[in-house]
Amino acid sequence: MEHTSSRRGPAFARRGKGMRGTQHGDRTQGVQRIDRAPRDSRSEPRFGESPRPSVRPPFMKDGRRAARTVPYGERSQQVISRAEGGKPKFDQRKAGPRAAAATSWENVAEWYGTHLSAPGTYQSEVVWPGALRMLGVGPGKTFLDVACGEGSFANLVVKQGGAVVGIDAAPTLIRQAQNKHIRNAEFLVGDATNADRNLRDRKFDGAALVLALQNINDMPAVFASVSRMLNKNAPFVIVLNHPAFRIPRQSAWGFEDERKMMYRRIDSYMSENAIPMQMHPGDAPTINTTSFHRPISSYITALSAAGFAVDAMEEWISHKESTSGPRAKAENRVRREVPMFLAIRGRKM
Predict the structure, then answer these.
(1) Which of 6, 77, 157, 254 pairs with 50 at a CA distance of 20 to 30 A?
(2) pTM score, whole prediction
(3) CA distance 100 to 77
(4) What separation in angstroms does the CA of 30 have from each of 80, 116, 193, 268, 339?
């Protein structure tokens, strides 16, 4: 969720096709990403506010964005969820700082929501089923979905009997999630690094951060915030594009003609890097964000510092298969041997 932002190396292909022309993005296959200046803070909703309904313009074919027809985000409608007895679940009047959107997916929110509804995605076939299993979703439990996007994963949690609170820094994605009217789910615009300040007095039976941590700079702050909101022994499941094999600009596919084998080349792993990436090179090459690469040890160390004990770590491979082409056998072999995703589960101590 990786290759460089400037070239399209071979990657996992769709069923029955070759492996050329596909790229790995930070949240999803086919997306690459670069840092973008944050929006004017006056136009961003505060934590917990529902973004003002508006029609977000599509990207034009030349990559430019069409003009907005509605002023965005100003005087957003407030949403206050109340617990039993009429007590607010969080204090809207003390909503804290405005959502940080410098590396959010606000600028490709419309495209991203459409992409996730397509059949056969890595999310629906690999990532979400694995995350649900590791999270232990079940009736009577309430979960926190950090960087929840447009609510697809939260919807699956609810279908398995859980309740969800989802937060995301992208107002348009939160609007999309709210428009799904998912029962037992609420969605709030918010910064994952300080969510506990606004969801104070809320406790959760588990939390998930799925394919989004690589777009968040202050990882320790996120872990600390989530830790303060979890019940003792509650699971915290993190899913990443595999940090050892999918490193933007520092990893690539290769093919050895003599042995007829495909391999993964890694040029750098231990160094932590903030890597500029294009979000959607094909349709909007000027829309950028940042991908933060860290070695696996950094995640484990940060979890421990935030009060988590890691009790599970899994590596997930691609579900796709090549059925034709001269390299089909090599492609299928490398899919089985080189994992695409890393899932880590910590338990609140």
Answers:
(1) 157
(2) 0.69
(3) 19
(4) 37, 12, 27, 22, 17
